[in-house]
Amino acid sequence: MKGLVEKAKVLIEALPYIRKFYGKTFVIKYGGAAQKEEALKEAFAQDVVLLKYIGINTVVVHGGGPKISETMKKMGKTPQFIHGQRVTDEETMDIVEMVLGGLVNKGIVATINQQGGRAVGLTGKDGHLIKARRKRIRKKSEKDKTDEIIDLGLVGEVQEVNPEIVEHLDRSGFIPVIAPVGVSKDGETLNINADYVASAVASALGAEKLILLTDVDGVKSASGKKISTLKRKRAEELISSGVIKEGMIPKVQACLEALKAGVKKTHIIDGRVPHCLLLEIFTEEGVGTEIV
Q: Which of 109, 155, 247, 274 could cross-link with 119 by S-S, CB 3.0 to 4.6 Å?
C-alpha cells in the first residue's frame, strides 16, 4: 500500500503543471542519444504520447546528422563540414532528403504510434510549411583579413513558417513530426539546422515551450557547473566570452530567437536521461537548463 500511495503522490505533484499547460503547445527538438538508443527512443515516444493524452499539443522536430553521414559513407561519398555545417551539393541533398524525410522521420512516427500515439510525418515542403533561403557564412580571409563568403551549397535558413498544417493536425489529435528540410522560392530543397527549425516552428505557433534534447546535462558555467536557470542577457554574455561554444551555440541561439518571438520558456535538457521530458516539465528540479 505504501508504494501505491507514493505513486499517487507523484501524480498529485504533477497536477499543477498539467492544469497550467493544458491546451498549450510544446515544440520538442529530438536528437542525440535519445534518437539512437532503443530504450531512450521508447521512453521519448511514451513521454510524447502521454503529453498529448493529458491535453498538451506536442510537435516534434528531429535531426539526423549521424545517420546522414553514415548513409553517405555507405554510398561512397565523404561528408564535408565547414564551421560545423554540412557542405551540401545536389547529390548530398538527395541523400539528406531520403534519410531525414524517409528513414529517420518514418522511424520516429512508427515508434510514437507503437506507444499509442497518432503521429504524422512531415517535411518543410508539405503544405508550404518551411520557406527557406540559401545560407551563407562569413569568415576572415587569411590573406587580407577581409570577410570571405563561404557557399555551403544547398544549406538553408528559415525565412518563414506557415503553421497551418501543423495547427490542423494538432486540433485533429495528431502529433506532427517534422524533418528539417525546407524549400526556397525558386523550388530548391534546402537542408536546415534542426535547432533553428524547431525555434522557428515554436515561434510561428506561439508555443508555450521550446525543448531541445541534447547529449549533455545542460548549459555549463565557466567552472563547468550546470546552470539550472539562465536569463537571456547572461546567455548572450556567455556566448560572447566563449564559455558557451561549439555545438551548444546554435542551441542557445535557437532558444534566444524563440524567446524574442514570444515563446514563453525554453529548455535544453539531457536526452540521455530516460523520460527526461516528464522530469523537466512536471518536477520542480528538472534535468537541464531553462532559458527565460
A: 109
DSSP structure class, residue 180: S
Cβ–Cβ < 8 Å for 183, 67: no
Q: Dmax of the chain from CA atoms?
A: 75
Q: What does DSSP assign to residue 78? A: -
CATH hierarchy code of domain 23-215+231-291: 3.40.1160.10
- Domain limits of the chain? 23-215+231-291
Active-site residues, by number, are 29, 32, 65, 195, 251
Statement: the pTM of the whole predicted model exceeds 0.90: yes
Mean pLDDT, 10 residues at a time, the chain of 292 residues: 75 89 97 90 97 97 93 94 85 96 96 98 96 83 66 94 97 97 95 96 98 93 91 92 90 96 96 94 86 92
Q: How far is CA 275 from CA 39, 47, 50, 104, in A?
A: 10, 6, 11, 20
DSSP 208-259: SEEEEEESSSS-B-TTSPBPSEE-HHHHHHHHHTTSS-TTHHHHHHHHHHHH
Would strands 85-86 and 147-161 be described as parallel, antiparallel, or unpaired?
Answer: unpaired
